[in-house]
Amino acid sequence: MRPLLSFLCVCLLAGCAPAVPPTVPTPVSAHSPSPLPSQTSTPPEPSPTASRTASATWTATASSTPVPSDTPVVFHYVFPIQPPEAAGFAPGGHAYPATDLFAAEGTRFVAVTDGVVDFVSYEDRWDPLINDLSVAGGLCVAIVGDDGVRYYGSHLSAIEPMIVPGVRVAAGQVLGFVGHTGNACNTPPHVHFGISRPTHPEDWRLRRGEVDPYPFLSAWRDGHDVTPPLPVP
Fold first, then answer.
1. Contact at 8 Å (CB) between 96 and 108?
2. Short-list 182, 156, 166, 161, CA closest to 80
3. Environment class of residue 213 by beta-carbon count within 10 Å: exposed (0-12), middle (13-18) or buried (19+)?
4. At 59, which helix (H) or strand (E)?
5. Taking Cα atoms as reference points, which of 135, 134, 111 lies closest to residue 123?
């Protein structure tokens, strides 16, 4: 009887001991990539010709804070008569810098770049007996581009609806239509196109032309984004 009790005690004590699972090493896959050291990368510089808005080169610093560097701002331009092949133009023709764009009446006159409408004349008030040059443009529209330059077109036959001072327009958006209003009443239909620095909207002397548009019109017609320089007052 005593040997049986001793056997039961040994078994009871053995059952109370917790089982310890064997340690199995974690297998390493031959296809698992090795951890890479941390890297600091510099994003590529955007191409000025591909950008249609302000461009900047971003450089990663030691603290990873992006810092813009000074790079040229690139704006998009379109020819002011659409389609461009509908217009004829030549250098000169005025006692001040301006270019006449001849096209069939009703041809679209559009914004040459993104900007805000600065001035609109909805009524042809030209009277040859009075010869008030402030209204010689007849129906006309001026915008101030995001490039800081004012663009003006006059002698229009009509103004596009919703074109009012203060409204934002995009390059290529219709502003009006070719005509021969104002003191162009006896000439073939055309748009008198002027480039100037922005002043007050009623400044017709400066608005009608301060920078020769011809080289820029030629560049825009050929698809080049060229910004006219602003004259020094």
1. no
2. 156
3. buried
4. strand 57-59
5. 135
CA pair distance 136, 126, nearest whole angstrom: 6
SS3 at position 102:
strand
Q: Under DSSP, is residue 19 helix (H, G, I), strand (E, B) or coil?
A: coil
What pLDDT score does 231 carry? 78
At 197-222, the pLDDT tens digits run 999 999 999 999 999 999 999 999 99
> What is the phi/psi pair of residue 126, to 5°?
-70, 130
Q: What is the number of alpha carbons within 13 Å of residue 77 lying toward its C-beta?
A: 22
In the block, residue with structure tokens 């089982």: 19
Contact 110, 175 (CB under 8 A): yes
Going along the chain from its start, the domains and CATH numbers come out as 81-221 (2.70.70.10)
